[in-house]
Give the backbone structure.
Amino acid sequence: MQNILSQGVVQLAVYAIPLLIIPYVTRVLEPERFGMACYAQNIVAYFTLLVNFGFGIAATQEVAINKDDHQKLESIFWTVIGFKSLLLLLSFAILAGLYAFMPKVHDNFELFFAAALFNVGTLFFPYWFFQGVERMAKMSLFIFFIRAVGAVLVVLFVKTPDHAMRYLLALSVSNIVVGLVAFFYVVRQYRFKFRLPEKWFKAEVVRKSFPIFINAFLVDCNMLVGVTFLGIYLSDYEIGIYSGAQKIMTAIIMVATQPIVVALFPRMSKKFKADRKEGLAYLQKCLLPIAAFSAIVSLAVYFLAPIAVQIMLGSKFQNSIPLLCLFAPLVFLSAIATTFTVQGIFGMQLQKFAPILGVIIFVFNCIACYLLIPTCGVFGAAYAWMLCQIVEILTVIIVMYRHQNR
């Protein structure tokens, strides 16, 4: 319960505090400039998935299993940090390529670069380590404090519609500070001496992370692909309308469901490691309260959507209300999909199926967006997102059912 509450504070800091400044940002930037900033964040989010590389699952699991072995923990820590450093450099190289070949990036490169600096903090922030050792309470406190500082920076320096870059830069700076503080805290607290990792690509934690990365990259693109396609077919204003509703929905999903799912994972991994039947029984025991709670939140979102949009986005975003109502079932669908995928597939050590699952959902999403957005506009992206969640749930249930007795 302490871990769940701590994760709640973390998710509140990561998602809710930025959401609290959205009423200010949307009113200052207005829908069009807000849409431009959100599109830059959308493209950079692909790089964030690259830098994280599935370590949120695999490294957490390795740390949880080896948390009493200091030498092994030290090796895991520096292997993950070193490998993520290479991925960060790769992400900036890809951004440079987009500058040369993608007009939207070329014309607004300062926005994309400011947004991309966010991943420097992603490199250093060892959330996977804190989750693995189940020491999240202290982490949640300084994350909450520094995120609050980031919100203050936005309010102080974002004053006109031309300050979209300042908005993205303030978020990136706060994330860098979070990452560095957490990094040095772990190094000092656990007395890790720097070591240059050997055989990065053959390390156990990297080997385990690769199929998870493929799955996470493709599955998490469900939320990103919609905005990416919107940028191809629709205007910055429509991107802003969609992104406003999406940001509210994402924050609700993360704050309401992710603390439970993430906090359960280390314990679920141990139970599956000891005995698969025990792990499945524990998964079934946890599923009902997660489903009931997420369903209640979904109903609340549907009925409170007009009030939420008026308060959070302002009068110029009234067209976001129907979108938020349509998004409401996603709290329930996302909670169930994440529980089955993270606790079930990864807990049962069935990571080899993760890439297949990711490919199925990603291809389905791209096809759905390609067909629905030109005809349904912003609602097409919403339909595609929900359909992908349903496809993920059904696919994971089939995989788990076929392997439960093996």
Remarks:
- The first helix runs from residue 2 to 20.
- The radius of gyration is 20 Å.
- The mean pLDDT is 84.
- The chain has 17 helices and no strands.
